[in-house]
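Changelog note: in this version the structure field was regenerated for every chain. One regenerated record is shown below for reference.
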Amino acid sequence: MTIPKETLTQMNWEAGMVVELHPAGQSLTVTSEQPRPRGKKSLAELLKGIDKDEIQQLNEAMGDVLNSPPVGKEIV
């Protein structure tokens, strides 16, 4: 099967890799056997996804642990 280079690039596939074919009526679905690596996000994109209220709630819930004195040999 020949797949256009632009499609290979978009799907993060390489020539020669193994794919699975799934026929359904007059259609054919092609999937890769190997998981595709996820796209990379910038720091700004990652930070944009943070819910400030959720972080505040987490900090309040962890307040006792975060403010407790060391109990072992950890360096604070």
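Spot check on this record: The chain has a mean pLDDT of 83. Strands lie at 19-24, 27-32.
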